[in-house]
Amino acid sequence: MKRNPVIPFAIIAVIGILTMFIISWVGVGQNEAIKNEGENGGEKQEEASAKPEDIFQNNCASCHGADLSGGNGPSLKTVGSKYSKEEIEEIIKNGKGQAMPAGLIPAEEASVVAEWLAEKK
């Protein structure tokens, strides 16, 4: 008795299609879970990154030094005695000269960092 050579290929195709269907179904459920987590967990993430020291370390320390002592950028240890909070915020948002690029920090965070730096006198 001869076996049909197409049957193994058909079985493999059916298994492959079923596997893709199952993976897609699981992915839809995970996508909804990620959306729900983003809506609920977004507040926690904003609170965690609202600390000016953390924002500075993540965005500014590579040029201004982790301890504000400077590096590629100028020292910011006494920046509050030279500039007001508003002036510092403008520099953060719009940049200054060619060395300080604009828009490295979002506007909300720029205000928090500017207030923190203005206290450095």
UniProtKB/TrEMBL annotation:
The lineage of its organism: Bacteria, Bacillati, Bacillota, Bacilli, Bacillales. This is Cytochrome c550. InterPro entries: Cyt_c-like_dom, Cyt_c-like_dom_sf, Cyt_c_BACSU-c550-type, Cytochro_C550_firm, Cytochrome_c550/c551-like. Residues 47-121 form the Cytochrome c domain. SUPFAM superfamilies: Cytochrome c. One of its GO terms (cellular component) is membrane. Heme c binds at C60, C63, H64, M100. It comes from Thalassobacillus cyri. Binds 1 heme c group covalently per subunit. The chain crosses the membrane at residues 6-28. Keywords: Electron transport, Heme, Iron, Membrane, Metal-binding, Transmembrane, Transmembrane helix, Transport. It comes from the Bacteria. It holds the Pfam family Cytochrome_CBB3. GO terms for molecular function: electron transfer activity; heme binding; iron ion binding.
